[in-house]
Design goal:
- The chain is α/β, with parallel strands linked by helices and 179 residues long.
- It has a domain of 110 residues: Rossmann fold (3-Layer(aba) Sandwich), CATH 3.40.50.
- The protein is built from 4 helices and 7 strands.
- Helix 3 links the parallel strand 3 and strand 4.
- Helix 3 runs parallel beside helix 4.
- The radius of gyration is 19 Å and the shape is flat.
- The N and C termini lie far apart (66 Å).
Length: 179
Amino acid sequence: MKREHYLSPFLRNPPARLDLATLPTPVERAPWLDAPGAAVYVKRDDQTSRLYGGGKVRKLEWLLANPPYDDRRPIVSVGGIGSHHLVALALHLQAQGRELHAWVFDQVPTAHTLDDLALLLSTGAKLGRYRRGRRCRSRGWRTAPGPGRSRPGCTCRPAGPPGSVRSASSRPGSSSPSR
């Protein structure tokens, strides 16, 4: 007797998926990376979406279309001040008329991380500052998995209410990074 594969029920009735990505993305030759006897090609996932490309869009298509993240309540997530996860989430939620409450923790304030923070702030996301080391609890909001997490949750404790974040370079005693 042949047993059914454990994924068969899932494949017969897959979960909902939002149409956020423009797929497939192109594969292009990158001759500057060639080595003797080897041609190098690059998959252009930066073109996954006009809003914000990359593999994060693929994850958000499934995440935002299914419970508990598919309703109109704000979504809470966590990441560094230069988090591409938070930027992608904020931009795609903004396009849906939804809101992100992001708890952010400090990173080295490079030009890149501060640009990402500025982009995150431009979406209207509400930000709170995290201290590392303790679990947080969000009441009435949905906590989206952060980067590298497979389940909802976070490992940081809020150090201030949403909106209390300032750029690392604007804090007293810190020097502004050179661009």
